[in-house]
Structure formats: C-alpha cells, structure tokens
Amino acid sequence: MTGDKEIVSKQILPYLSPPLQHIIMHLNDRFFASLEEIRLRSGQPLIMKIGDKDAAVNFKGELARSLDKAYVVTSEDIYRTIASISDNSLYAFEEEIRRGFITVQGGHRAGLAGQVIVEGSQVRTIKDFSGICLRIAREVKNCAEPVLRNVIPDGSQILNTLIISPPRCGKTTFLRDITRGISHAGQHNVVVVDERSEIAGCYRGIPQLDVGPRTDVLDACPKALGMIMAVRSLSPQAIITDEIGRMEDAEAILECINAGVAVISSVHAGSMRELSRRPVMKSLLEQKIFQLGIVLSRRKGPGTVEELIRWD
Amino acid sequence: MEIKTLGICLIIAGFGMWGLLGARRIDKRVWQLKSLRMALGFLEKEITYMQTPLSLAMRRTAEFCENEVSGLFKETAKTLEKKSGITGHEAWQSGLKRLKYESDLKTIDLELLKSLGPQLGVSDRFEQQKYFILIQEELKLLEETALAEAESGRKIWSYGGFILGAVIVILLL
Fold this sequence. Notes:
Chain A is of the alpha/beta class. Helices cover 31% and strands 26% of the residues of chain A. Chain A contains eleven helices and 13 strands. In chain B, 83% of the residues lie in helices and 0% in strands. The chains are: A alpha/beta, B mainly alpha.
C-alpha cells in the first residue's frame, strides 16, 4: 500500500459510510497521491479533487465520464459520516461546528454545510447537515528547505517574513515546513497561532502534523489575540500565523515585532500589485515591517517559489 | 392419598408462586422506570455539562444506575466503543434489545425509550437537553401509571395465583 493510500485508508476511510468506503477502497492507486478533497453533497454526485481536476466517481471507484454516471451521495451517507467524525457526540464539537469544520485525527479537516442557526450576530450551530468537504492534510517535508536560509540568514536572527500566494498554492504547507525548519535549527522557540487548525492540524489539542520540537501551538485561537498571548506567556523567538489581513492582525504584528519577536505569516494575493491594493497590507509594507517576501504559485506544482523579495 | 395431597400442594404452591412473581414483576417495573429516569438524568448531565463523548457517557451511566437497567447503557457503550461506523441510534437499539430481555418493562416503556435513539448525540447541548428533559417527563408519567397499576394489581396477582391453584385442584378433583 502506498503512503498516501495508507493515510487515506487509515485516517479518512473509518469516518465514511460503508458505500463511500467501498468506493474509495476501489480507487486507482495512482489517484491517492494527488487526492486533495472528497466532497459529499446530499443528493449530488460524489466529487473528488484529484490534483487540479474535479472528478466525479462511480460506485466502482472509477472516474465517471459525466456527473450523471457518478455515485449519488445520500443523506444516509452524510448522517453516518457526521456521526463517525463526531464520535456520535456532536454536542462535544460545538465550537468546531460554529467555526464550520471539525479536525479529525491526522489533521484532516471536515468542512460542514447545512442549516446555519444564528443567534444575534453569531453562528450558534449548524444542523440538518447537507454537505461535507473532507480535505486531506499532507505534509511535504523539506518543501521550504531552499528558502529557509533566507528566513534565518545567519542561523540565529529570524527575518519577519510574508508568504504571498493565491489560494491552493501550498502556502500553509510551506509555512508548516518553515516552522519545522526554524524549530529544528538553533535554539528557537516557535509559537504557531493556528486560528483555523490548518498549520499544525491539532486534534484534541495535539498537533497531528510535524511542526518541530520547539513549537507550541495555540490551536483555534484568534490570530491577534494569540500573538499577544504568545509574547506574554511563551517567550517565543518567532510567531507563525496564517492568512493575516485585518487591522487587528496588523496591530498585533507590530506589538510582536516591537517586543523583539519575529513574525512569519502568509497572505492571500496573486502578486505584489494585488497585495499593495489591500489597505492593511499596504500600510504594513510601507512601514517596512516585513523584511522578506516569498511569492508562491502552482506553476510547477503547489509551492513553486516565484520570487524572493527583500524589503530591508 | 399422600401422593394426591402432595400433588394438591404442588399445584397450589406452583400457581401461588406464579402469582407472587407476577406481583413482584409489576412492582419491579415501577422501580425500573424510576431507575431509568434517574439514569437518563445522569446521562443528560454527562452530555450537557461534561460534554463527555457518547460511548464514555453511556459507560459512566451504566456504572451509576441499578443493575436491572444498566444493561441498556452497557450494551450501547459496548456497541459504540467498537467504532465500526455504528450510529448512536443503532447502538441504542442494541441496548434496548438487552433491556427488553433483562427487565420487566412493557412494550409501551420500551417504545418511549426507542424514541430517544434518533436524537442521541446528533445535535448541540441545548437540543440534547430538550430531548432528555422531555423523555424524563414522559417516563415520570409512565412511572405514575405503573405505580397505580401496581397498587391495584399487586393483591390480585398475590392472592390470584393461590386462588387459581385452588380452583384448578377443585376442578381436577
């Protein structure tokens, strides 16, 4: 069994309903390496994201030629999958459901769709689930190795770094590998403020993905709050966080940097031009808060380094 | 003659025992309904305050409650612990099968408990609490009806068995 097939078989399959388990077990082995998402929508065809392509899959586990030839996901499939993911205890996952996803063992994420119940301006819960998006978490160890020496040029000082990329270009995977790299190099304490549980993929507070031996994770913690908490209580040399963009994130970054803590973060943008159109980011760039920019793309696959920019 | 007397005694004692067991059974039903109500109260707290995963909550409830009804929670916990894609509803049904075998509950009692199955673990704490409160109130009503039935039926069963035995003896003679 290949490594990717083993991950899916051991960590994803047990959560699925029996018909879905049968389908995935019969998928061609070559698809497992690039299987990114399994999309379950009640009454709709089973669709998987394999690499860049969306593929409908039939009951035999073969790619269907058209959507109407694909296996139709039933409400029973959704019900059983939700029951397994939550260990038949949805009440114990209220916070996760409010955020719209549950992280399962292995760091994989089940995004949830259904009827959203709102109280005031806050989401209270989701019920009558109609869809699940299972996103498979993958580590690509050493993918950031070529740029790590730019992030820690002399092995001790860590540069404030911004990873710039459009969605699905591997910036979270890249960020995780940088975290692991810094944690292994030298004597640096690293704190990951993982608001969406994507960097460390925590399951019940324990990182499921390797973020290094000197890394603490503030899982599901709002970024701005987490950065300040980390500076005050965990004495880090570097703080890692994902997808900054709000004013409070910028303020927290300034606090950290003025406290002598390096910040490494990612941001959604296709290019520097796009980035500078965003007021918060423009202000941070003008103040020369970040010293290094890494622009990623999918040109040669996820995590292709397009450009390294020095701002200092 | 001695054999005849022995036969009469055996018939009357046999029917009398059957009557006494019947009386005991209707008394036990009241206690079992009460035990179940208290156990469901315990389970409700485990779910709504402690947010204990369902299998563990069932296991703890089984330890908390009376032997005669603990089978329901033990069996449900056992089925859930297998983690073989079984839903809370299916596990609860397996527990009810065991309860039916081990308890003196009537079909109406089991039907009420069955209605809890589809709700187990599939909603937030607030919703779960609503179902648990409702089912405990309905169990309380069943308990009151069962108590009234026990009070009127206890004597009928206790004496009825011996009387029936005596009647059969007279008919045979």
